[in-house]
Amino acid sequence: MYKVMIVEDDPKISHIIYEHLKKWKYEPFETKNFENLERQFLKLRPDLVLLDINLPVYDGFYWCNKFRQLSKLPIIFISSRTENMDIVMAMNMGGDDFIQKPFSLEVLLAKCNAILRRTYTYQQQDNDYLEHNGLILHVNKGRISYLDDEIDLTKNESQILFMLMKKKETIVSRDEIMQELWESGDFIDDNTLTVNIARLRKKLSEMGLAEFIETRKRQGYIIP
């Protein structure tokens, strides 16, 4: 049974999410005190966090960064803020997905199911690592190494690179990547993939591999 930490300061919305997840055999936890979320997080050890942006004391971006320092568990932002910059900020702080309010409980459940299945079955891949042109992806560690450098990746970044490296020298479409990551393109904003690709490329560039992933216009991405 997966434990889900609900960080939502609107008690009505929080309880609706709680009841729906409980109905589908999750083990949800409603946050009541927003001043010691780090302590609650460490005590609960959740498998997934549902995180609002507008919160008392510190906002969701702050807490996402704190949680990300402690764990690589999946984090889904749920917010009424719909500006692209908010979505970009959420992804850059380490969020794995973004749901805009008002939202469908069915969509929320589908996203929770997909991200948990992806996260906790992906760790069981047969390959411990993949290598191409000197870059090594340590699959189970979510880390890349090249020469003397090592950089940690988020789960999304690691999965995108894993997919591209497994299909090296083959063009992989955006739709194919989204299907792999989120099970269905109907449940994800295309901007989320763009942000994850950009973030992955930035990390590769920092290692001197700026051209490791190539874009093929109107086709997708390839590792040549």
From TrEMBL:
Could you list this entry's UniProt keywords, alphabetically sorted: DNA-binding, Phosphoprotein, Transcription, Transcription regulation, Two-component regulatory system
Is Transcription regulation found in the keyword set? Answer: yes
Its cellular-component GO annotations read: cytosol; protein-DNA complex
Q: Name one GO molecular function term.
A: phosphorelay response regulator activity
* Main location group: cytoplasm
Q: Name one GO biological process term.
A: regulation of DNA-templated transcription
Superkingdom to which the source organism belongs: Bacteria
Residue ranges of domain Response regulatory in the record: 3-116
Give the OmpR/PhoB-type domain ranges. 127-224
Q: Enumerate the subcellular locations listed in this protein's record, separating them with semicolons.
A: Cytoplasm
Where 4-aspartylphosphate occurs, residue numbers?
D52
Q: Which PROSITE patterns match?
A: OMPR_PHOB, RESPONSE_REGULATORY
Do the record's keywords include Hydrolase?
Answer: no
Q: Which residues bind DNA?
A: 127-224
By its UniProt entry, which SMART domains does this protein fall under? REC (SM00448), Trans_reg_C (SM00862)
Q: What is this protein called?
A: Two component transcriptional regulator, winged helix family protein
Protein species of origin: Neobacillus bataviensis LMG 21833
